Records
---
Amino acid sequence: MSADQAASAVVVLPVQAAPADGPVAVRFDNVTLGYDRHPAVHHLDGALAGGSLTAVVGPNGAGKSTLLKSIAGLIKPLGGRIRLGQPRERVAYLPQLSDLDRSFPIGVYDLVAMGLWHRVGVFGRIGRREAGRIEDAIAAVGLTGFERRPIGKLSGGQLQRALFARLLVQDAALIVLDEPFNALDAKTTADLLDLVHRWHREERTVIAALHDLATVEQTFPETLLIAREPVAWGRTASVLTPENLLSARRMIEASDPHARACDRAA
Ligand SMILES: Nc1ncnc2c1ncn2[C@@H]1O[C@H](COP(=O)(O)OP(=O)(O)OP(=O)(O)O)[C@@H](O)[C@H]1O
């Protein structure tokens, strides 16, 4: 079958089932996500296994950010159910850099210290142990010496390093990253990818929206390809086929962003 034929006969492939006896980090039951009752993602069923490292890929407008926000609890499903395998406080979320207000008057040290809020409270005292963790995290991302620098005076790459340091001190079981390497140079990307590898070795669950398929193929064992609904989900090599990528593109081109919820059974 040619790629064109494959795209015109779009089939929603079965999504990944979590291992029957393994831990589950997130489970989706016929989930619909959207804004003002207009669905942006629908028919999402499946699970992220605990300790898995998953890329979410898809064309612009496919619903990647929407999906990640729903896992982080920032938007509620319009339909279906999302269940977490760990308490909400153990979920860390990195928004797209472009969504951040860089005029907020805060320095690198205090930004990184915010990663401890769940443990010490907003006005809690940072003891010697916590201070050591903040300093270690700042060192791990190569920002020692920048502790007092306001975030508005950092480069994009330095800000992303500081945000990764905040994730480090957060010590989350589930880490949700929205386009973490967008517009970063090769050195910064490589350094931050090392931290993703480290989290994976530590058996944390990581899910990240990405556009660079080479990075996905090299680093992410699992991939969810979406185009407002799942196109394929499983081992990266079996998901990122030319046929699936073309299907995703055609599905986005054919979709109506103003449509109401669809009645098709998941
Ligand atoms: N706050 C919002 N209010 C209304 N609609 C929104 C909002 N955020 C996203 N959308 C719509 O939801 C759909 C999915 O958007 P989303 O940002 O999740 O896609 P994406 O795959 O992350 O895209 P990109 O690759 O361009 O970042 C789009 O049609 C978008 O216009």
Note: The mean pLDDT is 88.
---
Amino acid sequence: MAHAIILMNLGTPAEPTPRAVRQFLRDFLSDPRVVEIPRPVWQLILNLFVLPLRPARIAPAYREIWNRGLDGEAVTGSPITFYTQRQVELLQQRLDATAEPRFPGEGAQESGGQNSLVAYAMTYGAPSLADTVARLQKQGASRFVVLPLYPQYSATTTGAIYDQVAKIIRASRNVPDISVVHDYWSHPLYIEALANSVREHREKYGAAEKLLMSFHGIPKANIRKGDPYYQQCCGTAERLAAALALPRDQWEITFQSRFGKAEWLQPYTDRTLVEWGQAGVASVDVICPAFSADCLETLEEIAVENRANFIDAGGSEYRYIPALNAREDHLAAIEAIVRERMPAGFSQ
Ligand SMILES: C=CC1=C(C)c2cc3[nH]c(cc4nc(cc5[nH]c(cc1n2)c(C)c5CCC(=O)O)C(CCC(=O)O)=C4C)c(C)c3C=C
Ligand SMILES: [Fe+2]
Ligand SMILES: [Fe+2]
């Protein structure tokens, strides 16, 4: 066993309770990569306002999505963890299927051949990257590919993962061989998987008047300071529209999940949907290309809250296109991205 692949996502509370949400938010929102307000000021705001108030407000939303998938799909626990675990299982199967057996006629598993180990870790909450790397090392892994499941790089997400890798490296005498995927927004198989998901959705339900591509937002100031996220989101949207041959007036890019008082990337998803409903747009399909797994921000904020924004403003048909989750074409993209990081001639 030599190579290990670690799929990473943001994380989620251990339970949909205010206590567990508080614990998760403390970990997440204390990271200086996520909130760049000077530490003493932010610690005061976090401890006086955010952590005492937000968990009670957000826990019911987590309860709504817990154990629930779209279209009656059997999901257990928090959807982001459920789908990440499915991605691990399916990637493991794909890599095992092509692992080279040690002796002719033997499967890689039976022969103890050089097949890769796939695991996942969460930036916040459990399992942590440090624990996952230590566990895989005990199992014999010496080379690691870390794939942050964020197609578009942002310092707030992928940057935070690089920090955690750096911390592991600093604490090691024999530094592990770790490769981190920076971004994959322009990978043709990722764009193809997104386009397939839109096409299949349209075959099932018909095409809406507009396709709204809603990305998780970040503060606008981060872009001015050099974060390439906005550019990569726009690039993703343009490539997806081109793959679908959509005329420019049939799609729009927006940003969701605003947090705090600062200005975030615009146009905002919620405002756009209200404006469209008021302007007489009757039907909308919404896709969230920055989310590789369905989670609170898609299943609640997009599929429930923003549906209400659009319908209450006068719209009539609103359909959310699920994240790529455990789709075969998504796993094909993930496999290709990971393989590009595995040295040629190295048996997995
Ligand atoms: C405080 C600022 C935040 C930044 C910057 C931010 C960037 C960012 N986040 C994601 C992906 C996800 N975020 C999720 C939840 C979530 N995000 C924030 C705040 C920021 N995100 C909060 C406070 C929360 C928790 C919920 C809430 O209290 O509103 C999730 C879902 C996790 C789950 O449990 O389902 C994801 C995924 C990206 C991609 C991103 C920047 C590009
Ligand atoms: Fe977020
Ligand atoms: Fe949200």
Note: The chain has two domains: 3-184+329-339, 188-321.
